[in-house]
Prior knowledge:
alpha+beta, CATH 2.40.50, de novo design (two linked rop proteins), 20% strand, elongated, binds zinc ion
Amino acid sequence: MQGYIINxxxxxxxxxxxxxxxQKSLDTLYRFYGARHGMINLGFKIDFEINTSLKSTIAQLxxxxxxxxxxxxxxxxxxHWQQFTSLFYYHLKDSEETGEFYFDLLDNAASRWxxxxxxxxAVESYIKILEHEGRLHREMRCFFCEKPIxxxxxxxxxxxxxxxxxxxxxxxxxxxxxxLFENQSSFFxxxxxxxxxxxxxxxxx
Length: 205
Ligand SMILES: [Zn+2]
């Protein structure tokens, strides 16, 4: 089975409790420390087996193989990847069946993570999530005053559109944001705007 490690907690001594997003579900598994085990880390894609024993309430993670990406040795990219993947834990932790959407989305993002500013990949992926969950607010109407937005637009949590003067946050060119919303493309946004969208997303998916 394959999956992404989206949460890790230290249990007793060097043991770990690991939450893995697979193509079907979220699995929380126990990993016993062993010197011969390969190192695992948050955000890693792994191939693994689940060992269910009657004695323990939590199944064991076994036979782990790290499926590396070409960018995994780039500290900065790995750091942002770990931030990005941990957002999925808080978003999905109460779901049992997640379906393949989120796994496939991470696969797609991972394959593009080294090709451009990874925050662009994350922001574009987030639009796909909002769309998939029926939460993408395309209508340019302000969250606060409910009036239409002309000219610059800013977004608040869940990328809800708002007037810059109502949200007290800097605005973005509306056409550039519409391009992002309609075509999941950050092409017309500059890096500063992408940075801001990244921070809004990091508040929670
Ligand atoms: Zn307003």
